[in-house]
User: Which sequence fits this backbone?
């Protein structure tokens, strides 16, 4: 029956069983109330059908106890629904630390995904089963949404900032993904397939695929020079801008005294609107690149900066706050 | 058509008519709060996102003209309040005089606004009309400056539109006052248009610091 | 069909229409187009909203036919996108939002409170003209290239990328907003200042309470969408950057501003319908409503809490998890007053004397369908579930259950209930019951499969879909054809009844409201003499004038024949 006329999609991610459990729980409660009220209505409708033309009903104005009961009980049940959903959602919004990061760019009307090695896919996404996968979503034009019903996940893809989505595939196979935010003419055609492979098959696919795409690192390094970033961000820390060695995912001390983590979003913002967060001890002289770089270029630059994570951090002029400070 | 001061057909008493008119004006003003509020929210959010460019753009609009306008508008609220008082004590001539003064002050405000707008036009600070804030600066800076000016013109423009409507209402009010229509027993239009005028003034009291005064140094 | 005397309205045969009433008081097109009589203005609105209902319905028909096959061959992708957009804009802004308030509210509120008219009759007429101007701009947009942004106008698609006639549509909706605002203003002032002597707040019909709550939303919410659309329109026309990230703007800001109104707007659409139900059930069960204060209070609670839940439309935009938690919790809170109402309505049926007349059928249909629609809201408010069902057909099914199954049934049921008062004549009861049942069945067949489609993952606003979704789509379209029949039937027999229906008399049901104390149709001034109210709402016992068998006492009413 399930294969002929399924009522729910396959459960292919870590979230699926929890989401389905929520569905069953809420359905059960709602079914109870729906049936109870409907049964009462139908029963009263027949039992108290008017018998004489001038008949009137018994004037009952109300009952405070009943009102309190059917206010409090649904409220408590609603709170349990809220709590169950909140737990799943918070888990969903907090990707774990050990994720396989894949960049996904949506544009009218196609998806471009980029594996960590730089391997590109169009309208396809290959991921290994059993690993935590994080998608970093960017849009080149309008708002899109990346959704995989079999994983029970989706997230809007909004131009102007990154959104992230994470999941752990639990079953090898091919699963549909869709664009789930109306984005223009071919919104309905903007989908594809997520292929979940055994880890070894995934590795094989990664290395075996003949892809002449440039490694984003190389593209990023070239951009870093072309856009003259390297004229201020000297790696030895002696330039007008902090060194970027070791900066990625490190703690940065800002001019206003606060600290932030230099994640993908921070890197992107610092490129586009550097005045938003100025590093302590530096002048706000970096030009803003908003409107001058495509999402793919930003991703390439980020990949290059990420690769500097393992480079030696200079004693002075470092981008990250020295260890021991808050 | 009803003469001003007559009982309209749907009402039972003059008291009911007055009460309805008054409540109606208050309800209308509350809708205006939400109307302007949306734009104030947008401006405030953008201001905190781009404090530097907004600060720079803000400093390029004339503080002097803005301050003078604020004084002019507060004075006009004073003369409006005086006209309400005059109508309540039956001083019909004073009523007309104060209404005319309010109209003059309101027109002065609009005139000065026109001068400000002209200044911005000459400096190419009007979005959509060859906008250019800082020719040498980055695309982003100019875009954010354009955001400031878009909001500046939208907010002050909407306010000016309300002033123009207010001026029109004042002209009608002056005409009615000259015909002696307002007495201590009946001065509802004066009261309500006074309320409207004060509201438009209050909107400016918020606009002025937001647009002109923050980060002025 | 067998009918017992108990089932028929107590209209005495041989009634004649009153000699003078609001319909024949003056003649000529000018007397209608320049009327300030709230009852005539209500009829002007009736014609206009029905017109837009047809337009929205035509688009819906094409959508459902197109979706019969996965690669729909009826229209192109572009046209399909225009169809669902224009369906939404026409139905929401030009049918649903005005429907009950501007037609039934306008007609009934002065009558229900014992007034001669609304507080500001000329402003009432102005509202209608503003509505027409707004509608004209939107029709212009529809006919010069159409609109394909979705009724939600998300940026930057609407302000930068769309090539359709966005600007006139945005102007039209903006202008129409002022029609709403003025109606709300009129209702609030009227209800405060123009109640007849003895009509205290807690003697008011619940229909009036419902419209008071709705009017609060009208006046506080509508200005925000006005300014939002103004900014979006300016952005599109002058290439400004409020909501365009390439120019430093924020598309999410648009969503916040848009939904700040558009969520309360859904309560604008349902509260008046709930008000109608609160009138029909006591009347056709011949007993007071159970829990009057709680129903009145729930209406206000829904209006107030409804302003604090807007971002539940934005759980997946990347907004902070804390915001999402807050809005999810508040969304659950706003569901509770609606539940309270449903329980109170159901309890009113207990030990009633229940008539099976058409308005009661619509009211009970409302309860059933609103129940499903409201309960499925609980699924969507659940954050973990929303991740999966957001922007799928689950949402489409949910809101159609409430807006069509709820609001439209309330509207049509109300039209039937007050039809004798508005026209002086009764509609044909037999046909009407058939139509009500057809509507109920057709509606469920159309929209229930969509819940399943949504959970399976079919996204909204798709002109073509994967083949595995076809079965439920075909079911849905089949149901839609039955639903259409359920709407066409009343249009036919209601118009027929205006000429050939049985003359109703003052109070055919009978009902307890003040509006039933006047002629059917009423005089232009509504009442000969200003009424003085000394009885509580929905009191069937202390009302000898209704002619009912009170506590076994002999009936005071003349004998009824079967009509």
Assistant:
């Amino acid at each position: 029956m399930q294969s002929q006329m399924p009522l729910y999609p396959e459960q292919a991610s870590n979230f699926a069983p929890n989401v389905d459990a929520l569905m069953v729980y809420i359905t059960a409660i709602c079914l109870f109330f729906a049936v109870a009220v409907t049964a009462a209505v139908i029963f009263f409708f027949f039992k108290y059908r008017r018998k004489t033309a001038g008949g009137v009903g018994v004037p009952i104005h109300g009952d405070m106890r009943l009102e309190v009961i059917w206010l409090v009980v649904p409220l408590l049940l609603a709170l349990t629904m809220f709590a169950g959903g909140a737990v799943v959602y918070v888990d969903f919004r907090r990707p774990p630390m050990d994720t396989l990061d894949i960049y996904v760019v949506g544009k009218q009307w196609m998806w471009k995904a980029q594996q960590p090695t730089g391997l590109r896919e169009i309208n396809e996404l290959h991921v290994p089963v059993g690993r935590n996968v994080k998608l970093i979503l960017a849009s080149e034009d309008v708002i899109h949404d990346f959704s995989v019903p079999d994983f029970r996940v989706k997230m809007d893809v909004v131009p102007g900032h990154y959104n992230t989505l994470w999941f752990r595939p639990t079953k090898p196979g091919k699963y549909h993904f869709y664009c789930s935010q109306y984005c223009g003419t071919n919104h309905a055609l903007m989908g594809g397939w997520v292929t979940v492979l055994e880890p070894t098959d995934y590795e094989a696919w990664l290395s075996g695929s003949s892809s002449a795409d440039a490694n984003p690192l190389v593209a990023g390094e070239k951009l870093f020079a072309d856009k003259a970033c390297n004229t201020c961000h000297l790696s030895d820390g002696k330039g007008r801008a902090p060194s970027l060695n070791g900066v990625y995912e490190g703690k940065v001390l800002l001019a206003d005294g606060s600290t932030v983590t230099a994640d993908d979003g921070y890197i992107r913002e610092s490129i586009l609107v550097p005045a938003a967060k100025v590093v302590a001890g530096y002048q706000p002289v970096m030009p803003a690149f908003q409107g001058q770089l495509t999402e793919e270029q930003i991703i390439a630059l980020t990949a290059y900066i990420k690769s500097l994570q393992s480079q030696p951090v200079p004693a002075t002029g470092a981008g990250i706050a020295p260890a021991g400070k808050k | 058509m009803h003469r001003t001061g007559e009982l309209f057909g749907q009402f039972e008493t003059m008291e009911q008519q007055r009460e309805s008119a008054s409540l109606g004006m208050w309800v209308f003003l509350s809708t205006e709060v939400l109307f302007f509020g949306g734009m104030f929210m947008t401006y405030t959010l953008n201001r905190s996102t781009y404090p530097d460019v907004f600060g720079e753009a803000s400093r390029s609009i004339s503080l002097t003209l803005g301050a003078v306008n604020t004084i002019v508008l507060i004075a006009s609220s004073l003369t409006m309040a005086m006209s309400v008082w005059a109508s309540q004590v039956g001083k019909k001539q004073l009523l007309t005089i104060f209404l005319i003064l309010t109209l003059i002050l309101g027109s002065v405000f609009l005139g000065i606004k026109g001068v400000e707008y002209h200044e911005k036009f000459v400096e190419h600070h009007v979005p959509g009309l060859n906008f250019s804030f800082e020719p040498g600066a980055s695309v982003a800076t100019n875009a954010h400056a354009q955001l400031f000016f878009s909001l500046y013109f939208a907010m002050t423009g909407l306010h000016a539109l309300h002033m123009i409507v207010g001026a029109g209402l004042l002209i009608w009010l002056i005409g009615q006052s000259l015909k002696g229509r307002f007495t201590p027993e009946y001065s509802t239009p004066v009261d309500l248009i006074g309320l409207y005028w004060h509201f438009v003034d209050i909107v400016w009291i918020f606009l002025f610091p937001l647009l002109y005064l923050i980060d002025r140094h | 069909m067998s009918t017992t005397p108990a089932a028929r309205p107590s209209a005495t045969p041989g009634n004649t229409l009153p000699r003078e009433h609001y319909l024949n008081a003056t003649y000529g097109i000018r007397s209608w187009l320049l009327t300030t009589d709230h009852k005539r203005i209500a009829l002007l609105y009736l014609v206009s909203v029905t017109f837009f209902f047809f337009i929205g319905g035509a688009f819906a028909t094409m959508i459902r036919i197109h979706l019969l096959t996965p690669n729909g061959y009826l229209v192109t992708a572009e046209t399909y996108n225009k169809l669902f957009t224009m369906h939404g804009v026409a139905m929401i802004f030009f049918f649903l939002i005005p429907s009950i308030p501007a037609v039934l509210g306008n007609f009934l509120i002065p009558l229900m409170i014992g007034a001669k008219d609304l507080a500001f009759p000329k402003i009432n007429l102005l509202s209608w003209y503003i509505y027409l101007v707004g509608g004209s701009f939107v029709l212009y947009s529809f006919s010069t290239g159409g609109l394909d942004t979705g009724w939600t106008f998300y940026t930057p698609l609407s302000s930068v990328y769309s090539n359709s006639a966005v600007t006139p549509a945005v102007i039209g909706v903006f202008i129409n907003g002022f029609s709403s605002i003025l109606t709300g203003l009129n209702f609030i002032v009227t209800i405060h200042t123009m109640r007849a002597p003895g009509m205290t707040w807690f003697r008011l019909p619940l229909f009036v309470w419902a419209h008071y709550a709705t009017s609060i939303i009208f006046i506080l919410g509508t200005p925000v969408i006005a300014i939002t659309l103004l900014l979006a329109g300016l952005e599109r026309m002058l290439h400004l950057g409020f909501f365009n990230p390439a120019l430093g703007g924020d598309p999410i800001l648009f969503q916040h501003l848009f939904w700040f109104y558009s969520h309360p707007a859904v309560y604008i659409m349902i509260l008046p319908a709930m008000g109608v139900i609160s009138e029909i059930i006591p009347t056709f069960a011949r007993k007071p409503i159970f829990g009057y204060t709680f129903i009145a209070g729930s209406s206000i609670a829904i209006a107030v809490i409804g302003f604090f839940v807007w971002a539940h439309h934005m759980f997946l935009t990347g907004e902070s998890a804390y915001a999402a938690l807050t809005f999810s919790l508040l969304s659950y809170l706003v569901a509770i007053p609606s539940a309270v109402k449903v329980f109170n309505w159901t309890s009113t049926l207990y030990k009633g004397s229940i008539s099976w007349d058409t308005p009661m059928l619509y009211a009970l249909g409302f309860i059933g369908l609103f129940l499903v629609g409201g309960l499925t809201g609980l699924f969507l408010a659940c954050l973990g579930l929303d991740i999966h069902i957001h922007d799928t057909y689950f949402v489409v099914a949910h809101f159609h259950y409430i807006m069509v199954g709820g609001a439209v049934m309330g509207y049509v049921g109300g039209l039937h209930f007050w039809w004798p008062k508005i026209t002086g004549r009764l509609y044909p009861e037999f046909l009407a019951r058939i139509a009500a049942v057809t509507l109920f069945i057709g509606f469920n067949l159309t929209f229930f499969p969509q819940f399943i489609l949504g959970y399976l993952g079919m996204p909204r606003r798709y002109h073509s879909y994967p083949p595995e979704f076809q079965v439920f789509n075909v079911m849905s379209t089949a149901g839609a054809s039955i639903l259409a029949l359920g709407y066409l039937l009343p249009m036919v027999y209601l118009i027929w009844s205006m000429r050939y229906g049985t003359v109703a008399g003052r109070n055919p049901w009978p009902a307890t409201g003040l509006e039933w104390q006047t002629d059917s149709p009423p005089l232009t001034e509504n009442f000969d003499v200003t009424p003085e109210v000394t009885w509580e709402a929905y009191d069937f016992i202390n009302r000898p004038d209704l002619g009912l068998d009170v506590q076994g006492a002999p009936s005071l009413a003349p004998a009824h024949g079967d009509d």
